[in-house]
Design a protein that fits this description.
The protein is an alpha/beta fold and about 450 residues long. The protein has helices spanning about 5-10, 30-40, 75-95, 115-130, 150-155, 170-175, 185-195, 215-225, 260-275, 290-300, 340-345, 360-375, 380-385, 395-400, 400-405, 430-435, 445-450; strands at about 45-55, 55, 70, 100-105, 130-140, 160-165, 200-205, 230-235, 280, 285, 300-305, 305-310, 315-320, 325, 330-335, 350-355, 375-380, 410-415, 420-425. It has 2 domains: about 5-320, tm_1862 like domain (pyruvate-formate lyase- activating enzyme, Alpha-Beta Horseshoe); about 360-450, Arc Repressor Mutant, subunit A, CATH 1.10.10. The radius of gyration is 22 Å and the shape is globular. The two termini are about 20 Å apart.
Length: about 450
């Protein structure tokens, strides 16, 4: 019989939007390293671009992103100018590269950039990169700032998908997290975007916020379904005040208990399924005709720093302060402060802070983790062979999976001729991060040393 679900839900493990995870990046990867890595990208390698804009008008208490508040436009204009230089700098290091299949603007609030900045930056990207005809061009938005003019700007530069940060529709919860935005504001934002022809909409919701109750989260889900976004992300709030000091503004005594948090997640999930959405991995949902649900069905679903994605780009190039990229040779993270980032770019240097060169073992485990997080199953034998390794190299993972297998959360099959496979059961799907963590060769050491602190599994 399965242990108390809380014994699993409370375990602290990474979200696995990368492997190895960011706490293991180091400063041994430099600007010169990255320049060399970029130069090896080939014409058959398709690209994805991520652009980070680290500014908001005000900081929401729950936010875990790398951002700062500004009421002035001057920092945004200066930032856009330097971001344009970085686009050109990166482009100069690409000897040859395939088409860009995905662009994602994140933050912060990237829509704070002025209209001309968007026009100029997208124009620069078109100069230095080839855009695929089926390019998905996405942006993260604060619904409170969406106007008809802004929506028209997005349409003009080719943005065709928008993610609206909703979190919760209950007024008391909104006050507790420092983000008051009535339902009517979100509905009007969606209307502006759709009127401009931008019909591919994502909504981001959260559970585990202060003051949330079963009735408030069910009301939030109902209102969300009424606005009919194609995709919904349902994230568990990660309370990490040791990393994000502004989260100290949240009253910890008002946070749901572990049992209440699990109930909130289960209720929201059940209602979304009842409304006809398809469950995508750990925390995403999509309408059956959405490209993400189609990708799940045909096995092409991916996971990266934006979470679950249909992005098929083989090389992810991050630009802007603190952005993270992944190319064939490894991971790269930009400098986290605007001053040093700008000085590096002005000096003609790629603004690398740290990174990680990938070993064959890293690549193998990363692929296994992605397959578990997206498809809930992995045939380990061919994956290992692709990297010149054996399933015998996964003895540590098999040991770590024993408890999950005994409780019916995974099934592990091992046979002759180095054959092995793992599958997450229906009961185990809410705890898929724990199955993924079994293959994380870095996790035990990082937890023991305190090098990394992670959020609860559910």
């Amino acid at each position: 019989m399965m242990k108390d679900p809380l014994s699993y839900a409370l375990r602290n493990v990474p979200r696995y939007t990368s492997y190895p995870t960011a706490p293991h990046f180091h400063d041994g990867v430099t600007s010169d390293s990255y320049a060399d890595w970029l130069s090896t990208i080939k014409a058959e390698d398709s690209l994805s671009l991520y652009l980070h804009v680290p500014y908001c008008r005000e900081l929401c208490h729950y936010c875990g992103c790398h951002t700062k508040a500004t009421r002035q436009d001057a920092p945004l204009l200066a930032y856009a100018k330097t971001l344009g230089k970085e686009i050109s700098l990166v482009g100069s290091h690409l000897k040859e590269a395939g088409p860009v299949r995905h662009i994602h603007w994140g933050g912060g609030t990237p829509s704070l950039l002025q209209r001309q900045s968007f026009v100029d930056l997208v124009g620069l990207m078109r100069v230095h990169f080839d855009f695929a005809p089926d390019l998905e061009h996405a942006i993260e938005l604060d619904p409170r700032l969406v106007t008809p003019e802004l929506a028209e700007t997005f349409a003009m530069v080719g943005i065709n998908r928008a993610s609206l940060g909703v979190q919760d529709f209950d007024l008391d919860v909104q006050k507790a997290i420092g983000r008051v935005q009535p339902y009517e504001v979100v509905a009007k934002a969606a209307e502006h975007l759709r009127s401009a022809g931008l019909t591919a909409l994502n909504f981001d919701l959260m559970y585990g916020l202060p003051g949330q109750t079963p009735s408030t989260i069910l009301d939030t889900v109902e209102k969300t379904v009424n606005l009919a976004p194609g995709r919904i992300a349902l994230f568990g709030y990660a309370h990490v005040p040791w990393m994000r000091k502004h989260q100290r503004l949240i009253d910890e005594t008002a946070l749901p208990s572990a049992a209440e948090r699990l109930e909130l997640a289960d209720l929201a999930r059940a209602e979304l399924l009842r409304a006809g959405y398809v469950a995508i991995g750990l925390d995403h949902f999509a309408r059956a005709d959405d490209s993400m649900a189609i990708a799940l069905a045909d096995g092409s679903l991916k996971r990266n720093f934006q979470g679950y994605t249909t992005d098929q780009g083989e090389q992810l190039i991050g630009m802007g302060v603190s952005s993270i990229g992944k190319v064939s040779r490894g991971y790269i993270q930009n400098m986290p402060d605007v001053g040093n980032w700008k000085r590096a770019i002005d000096a003609g240097e790629l603004p690398v802070s740290k990174g990680l060169a990938l070993s064959a073992d890293d690549r193998m485990r990363g692929r296994i983790i992605e397959e578990l997080m997206t498809n809930y199953a992995c045939d380990l034998t061919p994956v290992c062979r692709d990297y010149g390794l054996s399933t015998q190299d996964l003895a540590d993972a098999f040991t770590a999976l024993e408890d999950l297998a005994e409780d019916g959360l995974v099934t592990l099959e091992r046979g002759a001729n180095d054959n092995a496979s793992v599958q997450v059961t229906e009961a185990g799907r809410p705890y898929v991060r724990l199955a993924a963590a079994a293959f994380d060769a870095y996790l035990a050491e990082s937890l023991e040393s305190g090098k990394a602190r992670h959020s609860a599994a559910v």
